[in-house]
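Aim 2 progress update. The chain analyzed this quarter is reproduced below.
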Amino acid sequence: MLSVLFPNIYSFVLFLAGIIFLWFILGEKDTESLLLFFFTVVLSFIIVITGDVYAALSADLIVALMDNFYKKKFYFIFPLLVIDFVIVILFYQVYLSDILLSISVSAIIAVAFSSNLKSGVLQNEKAKGKDSKIERKRDFFQISSGVILLLILYFFPVNISFSLILIILLLLLLLGNTASIGTWTSASRFLYKMEREHTTLGIGSIMIAAGTLFAVALISNRQWSLITVFIVLIGDSVSSLVGMRLPVRKLPYSRKKSFGGFISMLIVTIIFAIIVSGGIFLYPLLFPVVGTIVESFTARPLDDNLTVPFSLVLLNLILI
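Predicted structure tokens:
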């Protein structure tokens, strides 16, 4: 039976070790923890039977890490995740896209069911848009992050760029947790200056990272991947910046969004798509159109950091 479900006994042992570790690290077994455990086990099982045990292990570790984010127990789990990533980067690079996808989906599961994160998500949604100065800082930081990610994806081969993304992700997780538990540094002060009032540090960034990694892992066409990253990280921020300064008229189907933001996002993303694809071609231009429309329709409780990349991944599947 095991030989049918698992590629080898090694995969089965690591899978079992991962879920046992997750069970004990979750602590109090309330309803939310049980749901978190159940969905993570299902995710890691689906991954491991396809042959990628390290991506399955990553799912367990990311959920455990997220559930203990902003806690000292984080530092017990973090080295295990580093070891997992190092093994894949050095010896199993063929699985790098699986690792990115595993991180994305497991982070979304953690945000959805972890009591440690859910309250932070709700606080973040309530505080969104209340302080225009903070929102501008966040948008400029998101644009800067988008530029860096685009440069990495454009100038480096896939395996190297995915490895760099994993390394940067580890550093950001470590920095975020260190800043949140009171180790006050210039870096932590910088992060807190961009956080919304009464909001848990980094919650918005987790959702943005999860959506972006989901798209990067699943869209193999280099041009379409670059266009998608630009839409998610830069186009969305441009829409927000212009929408705050030039609200013009509110969209009839979304009172929190304006025609100014909609048109600006559509224009800049179309221009980027034309530049990247080397001309006006139908398929690349569909990405800005679909991304902008989905962003404009997205409203609470949905998050455009997830709905936009998900819709573009779906578009990619339809077009290939």
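The first strand starts at residue 250 and ends at 251. Strands lie at 250-251, 254-258. These observations will guide the mutagenesis experiments scheduled for the next reporting period.
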